[in-house]
Design brief:
This protein is an all-alpha fold. It has helices at about 5-10, 15-25, 35-50, 55-65, 70, 80-100, 110-120, 125-135, 145-155, 160-175, 185-195, 200-215, 215-235, 240-250, 255-260, 265-270, 285-300, 305-310, 315-320, 325-335, 340-355, 360-365, 375-380, 385-395, 415-425, 430-435, 435-450, 455-465, 470-475, 485-490, 495-510, 520-530. The protein is globular and about 70 Å long. It starts with a helix and ends with a helix.
């Protein structure tokens, strides 16, 4: 346990770790509240380390003691999330007012979030007027508004007339998107709608422009996948070299992974051929060095609580700019603590995306660790254990004590109401936090979803995240046969990423740990043990 004095000391929001934490630790000596010898030792060690980093100490002093506003910007975010949301609401309200007044020439420089929020508050009449103006006026207004209007109208699909209008609005998004102002969402969904309507050439127009203009990796990787799909629909081939290049550019994309996996010399072989990269225990970022030296000291002294607390205070945005070998080293330190898996996965995700040569088999084992696999084998209920492991990794990062703000609990983030429905009785928190009980309930619930959606695992996963009611609503709205196209048309970006992330993880778990494959003999043994 960390004392309340020390915990409050650590809670100084927004500070660079090295200077902020170091200066605050010095105050431990002056505190009237008694502190442990362990905390005094931490303070003394950090002060010693901090002598090497006077620039950061001076910046901290300038902000917090001299109240220098410029220096303070180094320690605090410009705006909180709440502040940004308030700004969006105010701008959306102003945009709504302009649309109602039909001041079309003033509808420019809008953002996607402002446009979506504004359109959602309009009356049907105002939406009709906006749609007519977007489609019939030769002058382009914001492509974000065209996208927002199309996105809103999707709620009325699959009505044929609405579908025609939605496609026309997305076509205007394509026409009006420029280097200076474009809609990622509109270009992407426009391309998907043309894939749906079996117009591969038009789909390619959308997706090419998206790939050229956007920096959103989640969308551009999908765009590349669907361009490959469109090319094949037109009788064109996609070379193995092209697929390998895409895999290198988008090393974490499920879409590119599943495309490349159709090649004989696919992703596993490509990764196997990569040579291991050198780890680097020190960085050119001196404040990060100070933090890591402190972590190493605490770990050597077997003071894991302080080591973990120190790792929590690393500036992970800054770490992403550090040397890749050093990022890998920090990931290995995080891997020593099971309840820091989330941070470990975050560090490695950024590392693999920015430096794909580090995505080696050895490092993938750190990214995809085994945990609770014996319980997964025991309770898999005829589901692929690799898929269940991937689901647990996504839901809780293998932390059995995770509890969400809405009450989802444990490894598979089971809601108490869901557990009650499955057990036909109230299920206690203690049961939900027990790994065996939680996996048993989660596997049973997922198996029920797979059965409900007729063995369509993509829809079952989407239901696990967003609820089966939403999935059934989307099935009516987007009656497509291609299961991956259906997932990409889901309007919740969280659910789209959730499904794709789990399926990507499933591939790598199956490749890294083939010994976990449940054979018929194993299944019969598990069944016999239950009887």
């Amino acid at each position: 346990m960390i004392s309340s004095t020390f915990a409050l000391t650590l809670a100084a929001a927004g500070c660079y770790f090295d200077a902020g934490f170091g200066q605050l630790l010095q105050n431990v000596h002056a505190s009237p509240t008694p502190v442990s010898q362990e905390h005094k030792e931490a303070a003394e060690l950090f002060i010693q380390l901090n002598e090497k980093h006077n620039f950061f100490a001076a910046r901290y002093k300038g902000c917090h003691i001299e109240r220098n506003a410029v220096l303070c910007k180094s320690f605090y975010k410009d705006k909180s999330a709440a502040g940004k949301d308030k700004d969006t609401r105010l701008k959306a309200a102003q945009l709504t007012k302009l649309i109602r007044q039909q001041k079309w020439t003033e509808l420019s420089n809008t953002s996607e979030s402002e446009s979506v929020r504004a359109v959602s508050t309009l009356s049907n009449k105002d939406r009709h007027n906006l749609t007519e103006h977007i489609l019939n006026d030769k002058t382009c207004i914001s492509p974000h508004l065209a996208t927002a209007m199309a996105f809103k109208l999707e709620e009325k699909l699959p009505d044929a007339k609405v579908l025609s209008t939605v496609r026309a609005l997305y076509a205007r998004t394509l026409e009006c998107s420029t280097d200076k102002e474009f809609s990622d969402l509109g270009l992407y969904r426009g391309g998907l709608f043309e894939i749906w309507q079996e117009n591969p050439e038009q789909a390619t127009d959308f997706l090419k422009k998206l790939s050229k203009l956007s920096k959103d990796i989640a969308l551009t990787s999908r765009a590349q996948f669907w361009m490959n799909h469109a090319a094949r629909e037109q009788g064109k081939s996609v070379s193995a070299n092209t697929m390998e290049d895409h895999f290198t550019s988008f090393p974490l994309s499920y879409h590119i992974l599943t495309d490349y996996a159709t090649m004989e010399d696919g992703p596993y072989q490509t990764v196997s051929d990569l040579r291991e990269q050198r780890m680097q225990t020190r960085s050119s970022f001196e404040d990060l060095n100070g933090a890591i030296q402190l972590v190493e000291h605490f770990m050597a002294q077997q003071k894991d609580a302080l080591a973990k607390r120190t790792l929590e205070f690393i500036d992970y945005a800054e770490l992403a700019e550090a040397e890749p070998g050093f990022q890998l080293y920090v990931a290995t330190l995080l891997a020593k603590f099971d309840d820091m898996n989330h941070q470990r996965f975050m560090v490695l995700s950024r590392l693999f995306q920015n430096h794909p040569q580090f995505k080696t088999l050895k490092n993938l084992n750190i990214y995809y660790p085994l945990a609770f696999e014996d319980l997964v084998i025991k309770h898999h209920r005829d589901q692929d254990p690799f898929l269940l492991l991937s689901l647990i990794r996504q839901e809780s990062s293998f932390n059995p004590n995770t509890k969400s703000p809405v009450g989802a609990t444990g490894l598979m983030q089971i809601m108490p109401r869901t557990a009650k429905d499955l057990k036909k009785r109230v299920v206690t928190d203690k049961e939900l936090l027990d790994p065996s009980s939680n996996i048993q309930l989660g596997a049973r619930y997922f198996a029920a979803l797979v059965k409900e959606f007729k063995n369509d695992h993509m829809k079952a996963l989407a239901s696990y995240n967003a609820g089966s009611g939403n999935v059934r609503k989307w099935m009516k709205r987007y009656p497509v046969e291609n299961p991956l196209l259906f997932v990409d048309l889901i309007p919740f970006d969280e659910t789209r990423e959730y499904v794709a992330g789990i399926l990507r993880n499933q591939y790598w778990y199956s490749k890294l740990y083939p010994e976990l494959l449940v054979t018929p003999q194993m299944a019969s043994q598990v069944s016999a043990s239950k009887n």
